[in-house]
Design goal:
Helix content is about 45%, strand content about 15%. The protein is α/β, with parallel strands linked by helices. Among the domains are: about 160 residues, 2-enoyl-CoA Hydratase, Chain A, domain 1; about 45 residues, no CATH class. Strands 1, 2, 3, 5, 6, 7, 8, 9 and 10 form a nine-stranded mixed sheet that branches. It has a two-stranded antiparallel sheet with strand order 4-11. α4 links the parallel β5 and β6. α6 crosses α7. The chain is flat and about 65 Å long.
């Protein structure tokens, strides 16, 4: 009788086992995260784990304005501000600003929305609340800053690059076909003509007039004093207090208490943050990429891909370090335009 040779079982290599375990843990993490996000979607975030019944009492809403002010971020902040306006349980709002500024029009929209909220608003400045970040703070009834806050930078900036010599070195010749002499003003392939510089200077000067008007009106400053402090210089929180640009030095908690006082809330005010939007794991991954492109630029695949890579790298770094990733700050891809922005603040 012939014996059948036994089949030798192939052992899994350590590398293969590690890969399988890693993929398993990743899958479990994704599923668990999706379940938690779905469960908490649309709920308000109440401080100190307050129960849902207690959280329905009078509260102070906190709107966090972080980063460069752009169209895509301002839409989200305006939506959150509108939710506070419509919530009858939110009696006052604290605007927590940590921003070096940004585009003019979005800053103006947010300023107008804050000023017209119809409820007491107190601004609380974090590390930086400069230029457009200071402008939106003007919409509040009262402004708090920390002694070390960087604020001010009241001014307007347009940035250009002259790459003419670089194109010559690379043997590249760029040109344009235009309908008017100012149509390519600021182009990077040639120097700027004096009349073009004059035209653009007049435009930023006119924008500064709007900024100064808001500062003078909201801070009750004499026009001459407003001009003195609006030459683009920055202030610490302590200096801003002496200059009349802020009302008090204090923390976020101080601002919350003041908001509660203005809203006539008895006792220590309870705070609530905007409800979280329902987002999938993929939405979270590509959020950074979405912020990097303008609404008009549907085909900016390079910036979108860079955003996806950065977001994934941040997630991986956070997982490897056991906490929040601490990757180097990336300068935002800003479209050409006029900005109320602290140039070195991001």
């Amino acid at each position: 009788m012939t014996e059948t040779p036994s089949v030798r079982r192939r052992r899994l290599s350590p590398l293969g086992l590690t890969l399988i375990l890693s993929l398993s843990f990743f899958f479990i993490f994704v599923v668990a995260t999706a379940l938690v996000v779905r469960k908490d979607a649309g709920k308000s975030v109440v401080k100190d784990g307050e129960d849902r019944v207690f959280s329905k009492r009078q509260r102070v809403g906190i709107l966090e304005v972080n980063g460069v002010i752009r169209d895509v971020t301002t839409k989200r902040w305006l939506k959150q501000l509108r939710s506070f306006k419509e919530d009858r349980n939110v009696r006052a709002v604290v605007l927590r600003v940590n921003s070096p500024g940004g585009a003019v029009a979005p800053s103006q929209e947010l300023f107008e929305a804050v000023a017209a909220l119809g409820k007491p608003v107190v601004a609380s400045m974090g590390s930086v609340a400069a230029s457009g970040g200071y402008y939106i703070s003007l919409g509040a009834q009262k402004i708090f800053a920390n002694p070390g806050t960087i604020t001010g930078s009241i001014g307007v900036i347009m940035e250009f690059a002259n790459l003419e010599k670089l194109y010559e070195w690379a043997k590249v010749r760029r040109f344009s076909i235009k309908t008017g002499k100012f149509k390519d003003a600021g182009a990077d392939y040639r120097g700027m003509e004096p009349e073009e510089r004059k035209l653009l200077q007049e435009m930023v000067d006119a924008t500064l007039v709007d900024f100064r008007s808001a500062v003078s009106e909201r801070r009750k400053l004499d026009p001459a004093r407003t001009i003195e402090v609006s030459d683009g210089r920055v202030f610490t929180g302590s200096q801003a207090l002496k200059a009349g640009l802020v009302d008090e030095l204090g923390t976020l908690e101080d601002a919350v208490r003041e908001a509660g006082r203005l809203a006539k809330i008895k006792g220590e005010p309870k705070v609530v943050y905007p409800g979280r939007e329902r987002r999938s794991f993929l939405d979270w991954i590509i959020e950074e990429a979405g912020d990097r492109r303008s609404d008009d630029d549907e085909d900016d695949s390079e910036a979108r891909a860079a955003g996806v890579v950065y977001r994934i790298a941040a997630w991986l770094a956070g997982g490897l370090t056991g906490g929040v990733a601490s990757l180097p700050a990336v300068r935002p891809q800003l479209e050409p335009g006029v900005y109320w922005l602290l140039p070195w603040g991001y």
